[in-house]
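FAQ: What does the model actually see?

It sees only this:
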Amino acid sequence: MKLISVLLFLSFSLMSFAGDRAVVLISLKGKSGLLRKDVAQKVLKQFKQSYNHSLPVTFFQNATQEDLYREAHNPENKALFWISHANSFGAEAGLGQEDMILDSEGTNVKDLLQNVHPNLNLLAVLGCNALPILKKNHYGLDLTIVSFNKKISSKKAISESLKILDEVKFVPGTCQSEQGIRLTIKRTVDETREAVSIKVMNRGKVVGFFPRSLNQVHQKITVYLPEAKIANDMKLIFDSGKIDNQKNYELGFFEIQFQNQGAWSLFRDKSGNPMGITQNIYRYKGEVGIQTEVFEPYHCR
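And it is asked to produce this:
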């Protein structure tokens, strides 16, 4: 990822393909924590008035981390604009201070920007001081990235990002196979409650995602972990991303299955209660040196 001051870009030189599109996700909250429909409508109007690119564009208002995860992995998207509040504490971040890129529900979505579909050629994160977050986390994405390291108005951020979009020539991505340890993870939730969406983390990387459960008691996904050398390499964190740790979120109970001996145990306190309100940690108890297998993290059109 090449960083250039306030914004950064890399140009390619091929025409776009049929089915390609741009997607704009607007995810704004007011200071009271409530959705600011007036602000969101203003930003939507600004974007529509400024947008004159030939690439078709789709808009999502009140976007959530589910919307971001889905659209970041959508092979039809060539340009993705994420518009929300952001806050970077920089290198001087203290205990309990975390860089944040927030969605409309008060969820920190910064980790979801680590992985995007190879077909995506431009990622614009339009929030004040979002650029230091991208730099510090070393996302290393091989695409054009537009962001800012200062407070900036929505109108100017949109204008600057669209200038960069005009310079990007779209190329199809290359979907390469990788090696990983295959796990099947089943989530069981309280049928009387709506479970929040969950990202599955391993060694600081997002390896899977559970959407919120809507009248679903069971959900199942397959994830792949990088080669493990020690037991701690197999630790899994199921993170809601919620920044309000005073609410009682329904995360669910997770059952992890794979081909080798060993098991994961939920990290609990002395009373037997799960440690963590917004996330749960499952520690691996078993042997390492587990055989990997070939998988395709993305499917190209």
